[in-house]
């Protein structure tokens, strides 16, 4: 069984295509904690990629900021060297960067880079812009943010996600201990696939193939640029790009 699928969302800076998400936040109003997330936008400008959150706050004040994000390691898996994001709030660049804690979906607090203590950020009543940025082609892989004047309330629980991921790991270990004849779900569905025309040759297109776990990211490329992708998974884990 294929356990991981990586879907790439590609934006081209040459045409300044933005990726805007609003429906997700409209249907999950409590994600933001003490504030309401109105929408998020992935934008490319020059050599920078931005993830912009537009939020609405009920009042002025200082808030703790947490993010639900996927860490991106700059070297081999387990190196502990992560891509950091610059943070700007209402056009005011913050002194400290946001640094992920691990290569997985997790709660990442905004902290003082030296003391590692959680920092407060200044938010005004009404609409605010919280912007995370990094060098292209990478993009800040942040699903949502949470702000609260209460430190504990600002935390984003990963209990449900961790339990879900543990179930995947346990089933994979059972498969390794009790191997069965492997069936390639893509190959077995070729006969039901739809052949689509392509100048470089025909290819099969499938709809509705299920995967136990999926991961995606967004990158920025220029027209005509040649790009190479590769993925790695722990020993025993099958995955597909």
Structural class: mainly beta
Query: What sort of overall outline do the alpha carbons produce when their principal axes are compared?
Result: globular
CATH class value of one domain:
Mainly Beta
Computed over alpha carbons, the radius of gyration is 20 Å
Name given to the CATH homologous superfamily of one domain: Galactose-binding domain-like
What share of residues is helical? 10-25%
Count up the helices: 4
List strands and helices in order, with pairings.
Blueprint: E1 5-12, E2 19-21, H1 23-26, E3 36-45, E4 48-57, E5 61-70, E6 86-89, E7 92-93, E8 105-109, E9 120-123, E10 126-135, E11 142-148, H2 151-154, H3 159-177, H4 185-188, E12 194-196, E13 203-205, E14 214-221
Parallel strand pairs: 1-14
Antiparallel strand pairs: 2-3, 3-4, 4-10, 5-8, 5-9, 5-11, 6-7, 6-10, 12-13
Description:
The protein is mainly beta. The protein has a domain at 8-156: Jelly Rolls, CATH 2.60.120.260. The chain is 13% helix and 36% strand. The protein is built from four helices and 14 strands. The strands form four sheets. The chain has a six-stranded antiparallel sheet with strand order 2-3-4-10-6-7. Strands 5, 8, 9 and 11 form a four-stranded antiparallel sheet that branches. A two-stranded parallel sheet has the order 1-14. A hairpin with a 2-residue loop joins β6 and β7 (92-93). The longest helix is centred in the last third of the chain and has 19 residues, at 159-177. It is globular and about 60 Å long. The protein starts with a strand and ends in a 20-residue tail after the last strand. The relative contact order is 0.24. Residues 1-15 have low confidence and may be disordered.
